[in-house]
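A.,

Following up on our hallway conversation. Structure tokens first:
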């Protein structure tokens, strides 16, 4: 199996808009025949019911060795296509590879290394109950495991839509009712909000939080389009059990 494709030099990155960074990279990979021929491509949303997920080895950490607690995070993972696995010599190790624009581990990084260093075992006792911030909003850190919404790259690029309203400042910052028009928690990308072709056809302008960030399987019954939700163990088996 050839090495994973490097991050394209013209990749676009905007801080705090991980879903858009991954969308653009996913689209680039899908448009690259040499990538599609060898690799399955997935957008992976990481969150939980509390929207408090602790990730280690993140650039935004306040100090080395401490976690960043996000309401959600998004990464891209490529996995060897099954037909390629059968061509490998028996006993050779196949790897999935992670592209996380916000990790300190470098990218791409093998899933096994990324998973063990980003989600260490028994990670929270020193941080449980402490206040943290993400997307500018204070929250209480709770010991709640990460969940992973795994979405096929083609479906993600076709159906994802975000109007960026989740990043608008609200009453907790300004003392006014509702979101403040044009006042963002973090500067938005310079390009127009993303709306995939299928989302455009369906008249959907925003489905980020309701369809992708949520980890409720009751909300999304269309698993082909919006992916499946896995716990830590199942996600590790899916990407490492090759």
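Then the amino acids I'd put at each of the 242 positions:
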């Amino acid at each position: 199996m050839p090495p994973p494709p490097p991050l394209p030099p013209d990749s676009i990155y905007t801080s705090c808009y991980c879903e858009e960074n991954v969308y653009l990279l996913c689209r680039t990979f899908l448009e690259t025949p040499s990538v599609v021929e060898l690799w399955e491509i997935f957008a992976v949303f990481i969150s939980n019911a509390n929207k408090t997920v602790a990730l280690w080895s993140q650039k935004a950490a306040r100090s080395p060795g401490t976690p960043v607690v996000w309401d959600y995070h998004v990464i891209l993972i490529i996995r060897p296509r099954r037909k390629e696995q059968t061509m490998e010599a028996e006993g050779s190790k196949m790897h999935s590879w992670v592209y996380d624009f916000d990790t300190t581990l470098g990218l791409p990084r093998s899933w096994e290394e990324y998973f063990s260093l980003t989600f260490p075992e028994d990670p929270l006792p020193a941080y449980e109950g402490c206040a943290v911030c993400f997307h500018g909003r204070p929250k209480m850190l709770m010991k709640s495991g990460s969940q992973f919404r795994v979405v096929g790259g083609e479906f993600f690029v076709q159906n994802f839509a975000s109007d960026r309203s989740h990043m608008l400042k609200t009453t907790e910052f300004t003392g006014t009712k509702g979101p403040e028009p044009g006042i963002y928690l973090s500067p938005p990308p310079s390009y127009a909000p993303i709306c995939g072709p299928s989302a455009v056809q369906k008249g959907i302008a925003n489905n980020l939080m309701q369809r992708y960030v949520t980890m409720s399987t009751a909300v999304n019954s269309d698993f082909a389009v919006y992916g499946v939700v896995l716990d830590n163990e199942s996600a590790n088996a899916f990407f490492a059990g090759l």
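The beta strands are 39-47, 53-55, 68-70, 73-80, 97-99, 109-110, 131-134, 137-140, 147-152, 228-231. Curious whether your intuition agrees with the design.

B.
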